[in-house]
Structure formats: structure tokens, C-alpha cells
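Working notes for the structural subgroup meeting. M.R. asked for a predicted model of this chain before we commit to crystallization trials. I am recording the input and output together here so anyone reviewing the notebook later can reproduce the run.

Input as submitted:
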Amino acid sequence: MFDVGSLEILLITVLGLVILGPQRLPNALRTGFAWYNKAKTSMAEVSTKIEKELELGEVKDTLNQQVKVPTKISSAPLVNKDTSK
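Returned structure, recorded in C-alpha cell form:
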């Protein structure tokens, strides 16, 4: 997802250690990773839902092409009301 190398991770760790201190850094890392995992899970769910919707749209298009649903409804009567035989 992110293109982060080992040097960037080392720099972020050192900055975190200097800013937060050794007591608060582990808790901050746990919280950060928890947020990251929640965001990753949410994005996966959204992606799955979008894929399902696209598949349903494709199925509807295929069915419409095969069935050829009429776009206009005729106003002509379906039954012949002429009883003069």
C-alpha cells in the first residue's frame, strides 16, 4: 500500500522514541497499528461490496441483452372485445 523502506521505518521509530519517550511509544504503536488494521478491513469490505455491485450490474446487462425487455408498453387492448360474430 505504502512504499516505505527500512530507512524510513528507522527514521519514524527514532522520531517516535524521541518525541513520545520509551514509556508511551509501545502504546502509541499499538494504537496506530489498530487504526491501520481497521482502515484496511474497512477498505477491503468496501472493495468487496463494489465488486459485488459491479457483478450484479453485469448480470443485469447480460439478462437484458438476452431477454430484450420492451421499453414501451402498448396501450392496445389484449383481448378483442368484438362480440358480433
